[in-house]
Amino acid sequence: MTIQQRPTLYIDGVWCSSSEGSTRPTINPYDASVLTEVDEASVADAERAIASAKHYFTTSDWPSRPYVERCAFLSRMVKLLQKHKSELARIETLDTGKTLGESEIDIDDVSNVFRFYAAEALKLEGERRVLSPMIPDTVKSVIVHEPVGVCVLITPWNYPILQLCWKLAPALATGNVVIIKPSEVTPLSTIFVVKLLLEAGFPPKSVQLLTASGASVGPTLTESPDVDLVSFTGGLATGQAIMRSCASTVKRCTVELGGKNPNVVFADCDLAWAIDNVVTAVFVHSGQVCSAGARLIVEESIADQLVAGVVERAQQIVMGSGLDPASETGPLVSEAHLRKVETYVQLARDEGAQVLCGGTRPDPVRFPHLARGYFFLPTVVDRCNRSMRIVQEESFGPILTVERFRDGDEAMAIALANDTKYGLAGGVQSGDQARAERVARRLRHGTVWTNTYGVYTPEAEWGGYGMSGNGRELGPKGLDEYVETKHIWSETKPNVMGWFKGARI
User: Which pLDDT value is given to residue 5?
Assistant: First the structure.
């Protein structure tokens, strides 16, 4: 397997280097080694990508091709993703630090996303006749769907291939052209996917790729009047800045901005099962998951037992290289992110919370093989309350906070779960399925799992309430973000309308 070498920009149908000659190293978070260097796109490169995308959208037949043709390309992507699964998963693991098993699951998931939209987008073919007794017999009234235009897709570092393809599949299926801007921290799998898109038959100029930091090219992409849509997944502050930037040209802007997700556990759960659920919900991918169940909200009567069991399991989690089959979780993505997570644990201590386990980097004497990487021990923080920043803010690391509610007090559990500015996801665990579903319907979060956590399907929409963002990805509504809906009213027997008669003097 060969790591992608320069050039890594794809502009106007050609692989090319940065116009300014700038490069950026990509770092293996397991041992801080340099994997390779990628080109750092300049403002001029971004402007050239926008111009190429706009010209192709307005002059080519791509937007008007039959849906069946474009969807055939999506089906080819499914085959190519599976063909190159091992190679692509290894690249994803080296770049992000996640386990190889997680990366392989991600590729299977995005294969299903392409498969779903290859079928779902066909439903937009043709026109829908508008029927109403208010419409004269001489009128043909129809609804048609057209692509939005030039779409900028900005993706995060934690799930590079997954979050890219959630956007990419519906955007291309509906005849848009795309400019992809992956996170500068983890760009390698995205470069590989662009190569697969070309191999699948997508027109070369329907896709542009800019490897660069958001600070260097972001404003150019989001402010341009030639960009029709921006889809962003990432942090709250960046998302807010992007929304403000898009407002100047009133372009479409969809954002998914993370969450501070509650996992509510009632006392009637099987204890061993509940412990496993809580550990899995928060510590997969070292907590670097926007939907991670980072807030345990537990009924008082089982709280001590449950937390003790979670602490025991957390201390047994095997950390290591994502390429090692024995590893259960890997490092954090970067030194900068590691320092951020450390800061949140110190804040928790300062605010009076109790760190029951973890809270530090692994001991380099006991774990010398982890010493060079960005590892942080799975952490459980007890005695938390809603005034603490560790409870309010997204730490995006392997940190579980614990809040308690009175026995039998569903209203209190719901109030705690909803007491957040975010609203992406949540969980409700109870031996009483009716209660679990009843509480789930009261939670203001875009996805709620009962008696499980973290699973999803391409057929169901994904997105959040509140500051978790707007719009939806996946599901039928995931297509809606990328189409314009046009009403055409055709009078088949035109007549003088006779509205203005003229003045009589």
Answer: 79
